[in-house]
Amino acid sequence: MRRLVAVLALLLLTGCATWSGPPPAPFTVPYGSSAHTLRVDGLDRTFRTYRPRSTAGARALPLVLVLHGSLGSGRQAEQAYGWNATADRDGFLVAYPDGVDRTWNGPAADDIAFVADLVAAVGAAAPVNLARVYATGISSGATLAYRLACETTLLAAIAPVAGTLAGPCPDPQPISVLHIHGTADKIIPYGGGPGPSALELAGFWRRVDDCPRPRFSTSGLVTTTTAICPGGHLVVLKAISGAGHQWPGAGAPGAAQPGAAVPGPVVARLRGLDPPAGVLDATAAIASFFRLS
After folding, report:
1. Can you say whether residue 155 is alpha, beta or left, with left for phi > 0 and alpha for psi between -120 and 50 degrees?
2. Are 127 and 61 within 8 A, CB to CB?
C-alpha cells in the first residue's frame, strides 16, 4: 500500500514522464552504498544509491540525483564528486543513475521515464520527501537535468555544471536553478554554440521564475549572479574565470570518498574533462543551494 501511494503521488507530480510499472520485487534501499536495476521500456536500467546511516529514523529525506557526464558512470560520479560525504553531513539520500552506453539524451532509451521510475522506486522503498527531489550533473548529465526541469515537475531545483539546454523548453514550471560553468570551457562553451550560453540560460530561467534584476558579486575568479524570485525560487549563475570543462573542486581534499579512484589528468582528458578548478567546491555550493530550495 505504501508503494502504491508513493507511485500515485509521483504520477500527480510528473509532467510528460510516465510510470512504466512497479520495480522488481524485492526492492530495498539499504544503508550505505548499493547497486540497483529497474526494467524501463524493455531495458534494464542501473543506478546506485547512498543512504547515510545517520538518517535512520528520519521520516522525509531529500533526494539528490547526480547525473554523470559522457563516458562516465554512476559509480564514477559517486567516487569523484564527494556527494556521499556531503549526504552524511547534511542528511539526504543520493542516487547515481547510469546512462545507456555511458551517456544521456540519446535515441536508444527514455531517460526521462527512467529517472521518474527511479524516483518512484526509491520513494517507495525509503522515506523520501517527493517535494524535495533535486538534480545535478555535468556535461550531458547537466543537459539531462535541464530536460527534467523542462519536461517534468519532479524537481524542486537543479544545478547543472558545464552543460546547456538542448532542444525546446516550451512550457517550464518555475524552479530554482544554479548553473556553474568555466569561461574557458571548449566542450560546451560558456558563450554558447551549440545551445544557449550560460548567460542566456540564466536569463531564460529568470523569466520563467518572474525574477527581478539580479545582483552581481565577484570573489577571486568566481563571479556570481543571483536573482531572488517569487515563490522562494533562486536563479544563480557562477562563472569561473579561465576554468575549462570540469567539476570544480573534484579531487580536492574531502571531495572524493576515501580510497576512491579519482580521475587523474589523463583519465579526465579521455572523458573530455579538464583538470578541476580549485577556486570553488561545486558539491558544497550545490548542496547549500539545495538546502535553500
Report:
1. beta
2. yes
| Alpha-carbon separation of residue 36 from 10, 24, 25, 94, 249 (angstroms) | 20, 10, 11, 13, 28
- Whichever domain contains 143, its CATH number is 3.40.50.1820
Q: Give the pLDDT confidence of 260-287 residue by residue, as tens digits.
A: 333 444 334 434 578 888 899 999 999 9
Model pTM score? 0.86
Residues 125, 30: contact at Cβ < 8 Å? Answer: no
Q: Is the dihedral of CA 78, 47, 93, 205 positive or negative?
A: positive
Q: How far apart are CA 115 and CA 23, in angstroms?
A: 13
Strands (E), the chain: 32-40, 43-51, 61-67, 93-97, 128-138, 157-161, 176-182, 215-219, 222-228, 234-240
Q: For the chain, how many structural domains are there in total? A: 1
Domain boundaries, position 242? 2-292
- Cell numbers at 71, concatenated: 563516458
